[in-house]
Structures are given as C-alpha cells and as structure tokens.
Amino acid sequence: MVRTEELRKVFVDGKRGEVVAVTGATFEAKEGQILGLLGKNGAGKSTLLRMLSTVLTPTSGRAWVNGIDTQVDSSQVRQQLGFMSASTALYGRMSPREIFRYFGELYGLKGNQLTNRMNELIEKLEIGPYADGLCDKLSTGQKQRVNIARTLLHDPQVLFFDEPTSGLDVVMSQDVMSFVEDERKRGKTIIYCTHIMSEVDRLCDRVICIHDGELMGQGTVEELKAQTGKDTLEQAFLSIVGYKREVLA
Amino acid sequence: MNWTMIVFKKEWREMLRDKRVKKAMLFGPIFSVVLMMMMFGVIFSSVEKASKTTVYVVKGNRDKAVTGFIDMLDKGGMKVIDIDSVDAAKKGITKGDVRLALDFGKGMAASLAKPEPFILNAYYDPQEQKAQIALSVVEKESGMLSEGILKSILKEKGVDETFIKPLSVKRNEVKVGESSSSQFLVQLLPYFIVIWAFFGALSSASDLVSGEKERQTLETLLISPAPRNQIAIGKLLALIAASLTATSVSVLAIFVMYYLKLPFLQKVFENGLGLTLSGLFVIIITLVPTCALFGSILLAISSYAKNTREAQTYLSQASMFVTMPAAFSQIIGFTDFAQSEVVYAIPILNTANVIRNALMGRYDALGIVITISTGVLIATFAVWYSVKLFNKETILSRI
User: Fold this and answer.
1) Is any Cβ of chain B less than 8 angstroms from the Cβ of A105?
2) Interface predicted TM-score (ipTM)
3) Residues B277 and B134 grouped into a single domain
4) Domain limits at B90?
C-alpha cells in the first residue's frame, strides 16, 4: 500500500525562483489495485513518483510505502519498489541477462534464487532468443520487455509505471498493459502514470487527475464522469482541470 | 551488502567492452610509448650515422699528410669519395648528394712539417644539421692531429708536452642515486606515466555519470536500494582502475621495449633501464594516490555535468590543468625547482618529479611523503565533493 499526506515539492530555480511542482498531494493506493495518475506533460506526475521512490525529498508532507516512511528508511522503501518508465534506457554494452544479474544483486538476490528468477522472467516475457545479446542491438519492443523484467526481478510489492507505453507500437503497448494487469492479479499495489485516456479506462481501478502540481479530483472512472456530468473520461478530465472550450460547454 | 563492489564490477565490465576506453586505456599508452621510443631511437641513430656520413674530397696532391687524414676519417666510419673540383663538390652539396666536402689544397705535409699554418677548406650547407655533425667530426680529427704535431715539436725541443694544456678540467662523476636511466628517459618518462594516468580514465568518465543521466539509466540505479555514496565509490573505483591500468601499461611498454633490445634503441637505453625495485616501489606508491586524485576529479566533473557533451567540455578543460604541470616536469631539471620542497606540494608536478628522481635513483623521503599526502588530501576532497553531488537531487534534475 502507498499512502501520502500533503506531499509538496518546490524546486528553486536560479531564473524562475520557486517552482511548485507538486502541492497538497494526499491519496492512498491499495493492494491489488491500479491507481492511475492522469495529467498532461509537466503536471507533476513524475515528480510525485520520484518523491515516492525516494529519489526526491519532499519539501513538506509525508509518504509511506508498505507502511515504511520514505524519509525514515529510504533504502527499505526502495527495496519494496519496482519502477519502470518508457524513457529509461538499458546499458547498451550489457546483455539482458547481465542487466538482470546486476540489478538482482543490487536488490540483494543471490545464487540460485537469482538465477531461477531470471530464468522465470526470461521465459515469461519471451526474452530467451536475445537474452545473451547486447542491449544496443535490441528493438524498442524487446528493450521494453527487458525493462519490464528488470522491474519485476525482485518481485516488488509496489510498482510504479511512468508512461510505460510512450513510444511503443500498439501491439507492444497491449503487451505492457497485460503485464500490468497480471501484476494486479498478483495483489501488487500499482501506480500508473499516463496521459492516455484509453489506458486509464482499461487499467485503472481509481484515478487521480493532476494539474499544475495539484490533485484536482480522484475516484473511479465512473465517479469522475458522474462528478463532472461528462460522457467520456477525456471530457471529464478536461472539465476537472478547467480546460475551457465550447465543445465542453 | 557490498553495493560498491557490485557497481564497480559492472562499470569495469562495461569499460572493457567500450572500444574508446580500450583504445585510451590499453592501446594509447602502448602506441605512444612505442612511437616515442622509436622516434628518439631513429633520431639518436641518425645522429650517430651523421658522424659516419659520406664526404667528398677534392682531387689534388695526395701527400702523406692528406692520405693519413683521410685514413683517420675512414677509420672513424666516414665514406670518402673523390670529386674533381670544388665546384663539383658544391653542386653535390646543393643537390643533396653529400653534406660535406673537403679541399686539402696543396702542400699539407710540407706545411705541417715546417710547421706553418695550413688551411683545410670544408664546404657544407650551414642549415643542414647532419652537415654540422660531420663537420664537428672533421674538426675533432684535425684538432687531434694538430695536438699530435705540437706534442712532437715540444718533445723535440725538450719541453714537457703537458704544457700544451696549462689548464684543463678533469671530469669526476659523483654517483648520487643507486642507478640512473639515460637523460632522455628521465626527461620524458615521468610525463608519459602521469599523462596516461589521467587520459586512461578520461574517455570513460563522461559516460559514467553524465552518460547515465542522458540515457536515463541513472534514475533506475538510484531507485535501487544501493546507497548513493556506495554507487559513487563503485564508479570511482572503476575510474581509478582505468587510470592505474593505463599508467601501468605505459610502464610495461617501456619494460617490453627495453627487453626487446632493438638495435635502434641502444642509445635510448644506453644506461640500461635504470629502474631499481625500490624505484619501482616509489613510483607505484606515488601513482596510486595520483590515480585516485584523477579518478575523483573525473567523477566530480561527470557528476556535475548535465550531459556527456557538457562533461566532455569540462574534461577537455581539466586535461589542460593536468598536461601543463606534467609537461613542466620535462624541463624541471634545468631549473632550481627540481630540488625545491615546494614542488612536492604542487599536484601532478610532484608526482612527475618523484618519478623523475626515482629514475635517477634518488629518493627524497620527505618529498615522497609530501607528494602522497597532497594527493590523498586533494583526492579525499574530490571524493567528498563527488559523493555530495551524488546525494543531491540535482544529480537528476540538472538534466
């Protein structure tokens, strides 16, 4: 489970002064559920995930991952997490198997336990044919499969996906979403950042709309539609973030 | 858990797979040392050959003295060829067929017997260095001949022949070190060893942190349970290993060149390698903190830079600060600084100077201690700064 209380992050920029990236973020993501973070580019989704994954320290507020305070035991928090983003590259001069071993060791897996887990994921994600080739030679889809395997390697209880289908073709996007659904079935707590409405519609049990760093509305897709009186999630989202155009009127 | 070693092993493996790093760490030092040795070997043997060059001698009266002189040149290795006239000899010099021509004129034997001054005309191109060398050989031979004649005249007149040189300087070499390399090695090797300690790790530095920022692999690494200071130290160890490897390869290349005993390198190694076990030990203990210093500076730059392009700009600027003191070590022997304790407090120059002294078989304990302490002190500061950068949020947000 992931829980936050009034999380706020302010960056100090030499030219722009104080920039509020996230403010007043209070929410809860439950086990066996996918919580969608829906917002346009630059809304603060990635900053929020980075605070939860302890890469960034909140300016104020608190967050707990599986009951562990992110600012008290950040190493333990990271041990519980799996993080995947479409923009995350792989080490080009290493093979998928070597990358799995590297990250497996970083997460404390050893010997047979690590080898078995690697083999299990290589089989499940059909990485076998290219598991020993260099990552530089892999296609975008193959790289994304390797990325998913790397994320799931230590079988984390909490998973963060930051626009994981960005830049992928339709088939690969479907595969990624299937893996996310599988992990939900396994009882994982999942936070899924995206700006693609169809993905939210398909995957998310609950949605939070984030705009200019503020959480503007939360609930199930149906609840958001009902709250705004709109027929589609897209219209509901635009209404929540205050997008003014005649078509919405 | 030892995250430092996990990160180090991964970085080292990646470095060894990178062609640019391999070139800088392995082939670069070998190539430059071999090239340098060959270049100077060729220069030295050319100088030697110049003293055994071909000389034209204008045909004319070949009396006993002229024949004797030509015999001396011949025994000295010069090839003497007869030429018809001075004009023909000058033409040969202009065309580059020969570098020196001698015209003995007439009556050399008679003049020397009287004795009265005799002029031997030498023709050469003053801009031609090999001609200057050949001329100096001829002048040396004529000087010896003159001295011989003078001695015999003095002897005939019952005067002690030592009066030829009422004042002379006797050279008495004082052995300072255990053993010494040739002057050439003493001047150049410290520069090469220090330079490769830096450049060996340079090519991998930009990739190590700023490259990870650019490829967005750093975030994944920072989200792992590994503490950031251990990640930083693991990366630092990889840079130090690259630095040590490159500098060791450059030293190894020198050893290999020495043991190959190539003919054209005889002059380069005329005093042997001049490196004793204690000298080697001093070089190693001085180089280790220097490599740590270079590694930590490179890591700090790579951590600070937003991307590889920015890192490469900073790294090229940093290389200037390393090259200059290292280059100064080549001429430090001509200055009073070589014996000054102040030099040992100047990073990089101090290492080069300790290596220079070790090659001369000299060990200044205080200097070595100051050099190591300075290196350790600055390396510690640079490591602290790198780790501090790693622990800052800007390690990611400066992208």
Assistant:
1) yes
2) 0.89
3) no
4) 50-164
